[in-house]
């Protein structure tokens, strides 16, 4: 079968399409024929050797997919060949078929298509874990989302609205502003052209944001922290801007606020039952149309490197997919 391959850590342009052996379902595993795979920033980091997880070379990237079960391991009772599933294999989704532990797969509701399912698990799982479990978002609070038109960012905008928060989205362009407004943001700040801290203060009558969702890092983190309300919470989600910020401890003290680390992959590994409960709740909301992933581009497997590059160049909005 065909699979994308990373043979050496480096630029995503170095990825190649290779003929590799068919996966075989072992104990507790499924083989899924991939119909669509979601692209995430960590894929691009992993290929460059910049992610906290460094797979053994060569490897096939791809952390999530939707497709059809083609084989089940001997002890798998919950799935059968032909079932439509959405899954987050540890790796390997940018391929025609992938091996997935059955505990990392969920049935796709009848109302949901493969593309929406493939665009859902990682981003919504991360943003839900961040806002609900870590940030305890509450109705009436002000939620500031950085990188709000990106994968996890747009999911955070939608989940924040679902929980009754007032959402301020921060983005870098007019197109991204429009996308956030269409997805329910109450206010949008262009954090490249405008001063983030003063705009948040203006929009909150000087109170600041109760909850800050930060997948961007760099200089934006300190500006966001300076806009945090008394006893607010800063959710440290990622560093898409590249630089890992240092937080001035005096700001945390003066605001009586907290900085909370969010690492969904580790949460799903360490607290699998809680994570499955989250995912089941999330998939029910996807089925009901309460959460709607925005798929902005779909690339064939032959152009998978371009898909990853679009995230690195800050061109992607919502979710980008790869279809084998
Ligand atoms: N903690 C976790 O469990 C977890 C899970 C998934 C992802 N993440 C992390 O969250 C971050 C976002 O992931 P994603 O998949 O949502 O990525 P994405 O779709 O590419 O979104 C990233 C956003 O960051 C902003 N950004 C600012 N500076 C950037 C730069 N120099 N290059 C690229 N983007 C830049 C962009 O918005 P503007 O152009 O509007 O600034 C972009 O929309 C990544 O750091 C990723 O590793 C963390």
Describe the structure.
This protein has helices at 41-47, 114-118, 121-134, 151-162, 174-182, 196-203, 219-226, 249-255, 264-270, 272-287, 304-312; strands spanning 2-5, 16-19, 29-39, 64-72, 84-87, 97-101, 105-107, 142-146, 166-171, 187-190, 209-214, 228-236, 258-261, 295-300, 319-323. With 324 residues, it is of the alpha/beta class. It folds into two domains: 2-120 and 293-323, Medium-chain alcohol dehydrogenases, catalytic domain (Quinone Oxidoreductase, Chain A, domain 1, Alpha-Beta Complex); 123-265, Rossmann fold. Helix 5 (174-182) links the parallel strand 9 and strand 10 (187-190). The radius of gyration is 20 Å and the shape is globular. The structure holds NADP nicotinamide-adenine-dinucleotide phosphate (NAP). NADP nicotinamide-adenine-dinucleotide phosphate (NAP) binds at residues 40-42, 45, 122-123, 126, 147, 149-153, 171-172, 176, 215-216, 237-242, 262-265, 311, 314, 316.
Report mean pLDDT, rounded to a whole number: 97
What number of structural domains do the residues give? Answer: 2
The CATH architecture designation of the largest domain is: Alpha-Beta Complex
**Radius of gyration, rounded?**
20 Å
């Amino acid at each position: 079968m065909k699979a994308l391959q990373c043979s050496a850590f480096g630029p995503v342009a170095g990825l190649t399409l290779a003929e590799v052996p068919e996966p075989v379902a072992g104990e507790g595993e499924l083989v899924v024929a991939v119909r669509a795979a979601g692209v995430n920033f960590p894929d691009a980091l992993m290929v460059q050797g910049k992610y906290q997880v460094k797979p053994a070379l060569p490897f096939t990237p791809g952390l999530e997919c939707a497709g059809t079960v083609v084989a089940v391991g001997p002890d798998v009772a919950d799935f059968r060949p032909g079932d439509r599933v959405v899954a987050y294999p540890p790796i390997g989704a940018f391929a025609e078929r992938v091996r997935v532990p059955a505990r990392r797969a969920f049935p796709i509701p009848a109302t949901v298509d493969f593309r929406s399912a493939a665009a859902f698990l990682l981003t919504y799982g991360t943003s839900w874990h961040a806002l609900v479990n870590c940030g305890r978002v509450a109705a009436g609070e002000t939620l500031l989302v950085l990188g709000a038109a990106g994968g996890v960012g747009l999911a955070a905008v939608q989940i924040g609205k679902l929980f009754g928060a007032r959402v301020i989205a921060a983005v870098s362009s007019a197109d991204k502003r429009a996308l956030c407004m269409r997805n329910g943001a109450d206010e949008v700040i262009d954090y490249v052209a405008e001063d983030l801290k003063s705009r948040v203060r203006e929009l909150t009558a000087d109170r600041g944001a109760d909850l800050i969702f930060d997948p961007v890092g760099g200089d934006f983190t300190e500006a966001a922290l300076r806009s945090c309300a008394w006893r607010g919470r800063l959710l440290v989600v990622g560093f898409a801007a590249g630089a890992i910020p240092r937080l001035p401890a005096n700001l945390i003290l003066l605001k009586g606020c907290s900085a909370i680390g969010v690492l969904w992959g580790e949460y799903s590994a360490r607290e699998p039952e809680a994570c499955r409960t989250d995912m089941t709740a999330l998939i029910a909301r996807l089925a009901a149309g309460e959460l709607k992933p925005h798929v902005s581009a779909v690339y064939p497997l032959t152009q998978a490197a371009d898909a990853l590059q679009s995230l690195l160049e800050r061109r992607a909005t919502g979710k980008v997919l790869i279809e084998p």
